[in-house]
Amino acid sequence: MTNDKNILIKNIYYMLAYAFQVLKRNNYASIASEKFEHIEDLFAEILSRGISYQLKQGLYREYVPRTESLPTMRGKIDITKTIKHRIQCQQLLSCEFDELSENNIFNQILKTTISILLQEKIVAKERKNKLKKVLPFFVNINTIEPSIVKWNTLYFQCNNQTYKMLMNICYFILEGLLQTTEDGKYHMATFSDEYMHRLYEKFVLEYYKTEHPELKTSTSRIKWNIDYQSDNKALELLPCMQSDIMLEYNGRTLIIDTKYYSQTMQKQYNKQTLHSNNLYQIFTYVKNYDIQNSSNVAGMLLYAKTINEITPDLETSICGNRIYVKTLDLYTDFKNIASQLDETISYIKIH
């Protein structure tokens, strides 16, 4: 189990399953019944199954640029290099062309992640064996330095949609769990708050979309409630307000801002208080969205429970709008997590 956060490993699987619906397919379903001592084991199991499934469909191929000296022309000729061949009395043309290849960034990321998991001591032998079985299919694919991957440039289309979940798992491993040792080798650490927060936010959003279709669920951008006619210049300077989750039901709105911290409370003058910036942020969202001052817009800070003895729990009204601060316990059976999330929507169905 993880030490830095009180989260059951199995619950991380459920969070991933909601965040990436593909994990609910039959070839992944039995993962929920397995026991995992370490999160690396969970990722190794998901990757081995996902890659095995992908191999049945065939590894994704895309056109990659190549330069090669050939006896006949192909693609474009590199004049400079071709002249050098002539000077050396070689009857060759230096050609630049695109070739459909499996040796692309998507498969390179997969092979690199597999290689790192195989080096990790705490990954169970049985799961390493599963990864070893798929590795021979990557013999013509290069490994890469994880640091060079530009994740925001990966482009998904109809031909590689099945890679989307696999790339996200690799992202969590290579970016969220990986550390470099002094001798340049890699080892697994633990999830940082940054990466767990992204998963936590995505999970809560997708849970409501899946389990509560009666709600309108979105991640809406909130406009500043200013006079657009006279303050256009000011508007350009104001930061963007993007809600994590917005739930709407029968004219009522609940804006949820998810928070995942090692410490959910701050200490001021020997007193435990809520993080000031978090409270200011959710209040700003609510008041700018409720432009009619209808009081039908509420805000909620939804913290993931940590090892802190004090658990944030607050319900109050500020300037006519309800503000809630709640905590989601992730170190419990998943049905209890679902029950906590179901209870949350009562705030817009009752109040």
Write the layout of secondary structure elements.
Layout: H1 9-19, H2 26-29, H3 39-57, E1 62-70, E2 76-77, H4 79-87, E3 93-101, H5 105-119, H6 125-134, H7 163-177, E4 178-180, E5 186-188, H8 193-211, E6 216-218, E7 221-222, H9 232-237, E8 241-242, E9 245-249, E10 252-259, E11 265-268, E12 271-274, H10 276-289, E13 297-304, E14 314-318, E15 321-328, H11 334-344, H12 346-349
Parallel strand pairs: 10-13, 13-15
Antiparallel strand pairs: 1-3, 2-3, 4-5, 6-9, 7-8, 9-10, 11-12, 14-15
Question: What does this protein look like?
Answer:
Keywords: Endonuclease, Hydrolase, Nuclease. Pfam families: McrBC. This is 5-methylcytosine-specific restriction endonuclease system specificity protein McrC. GO terms for molecular function: endonuclease activity; hydrolase activity. Its EC number is 3.1.21.-. Helices cover 39% and strands 21% of the residues. The radius of gyration is 26 Å and the shape is globular. A hairpin with a 2-residue loop joins strand 14 and strand 15. Helix 1 packs across helix 8, helix 3 runs antiparallel to helix 7 and helix 5 crosses helix 7. The chain has three domains: 141 residues, no CATH class; 39 residues, no CATH class; 155 residues, Trna Endonuclease, Chain: A, domain 1 (3-Layer(aba) Sandwich). The strands form five sheets. Strands 6-9-10-13-15-14 form a six-stranded mixed β-sheet, sandwiched between helices. Strands 1-3-2 form a three-stranded antiparallel β-sheet. Strands 4-5 form a two-stranded antiparallel sheet. It is α+β, with helices and mostly antiparallel strands and 351 residues long. The N terminus is likely disordered.
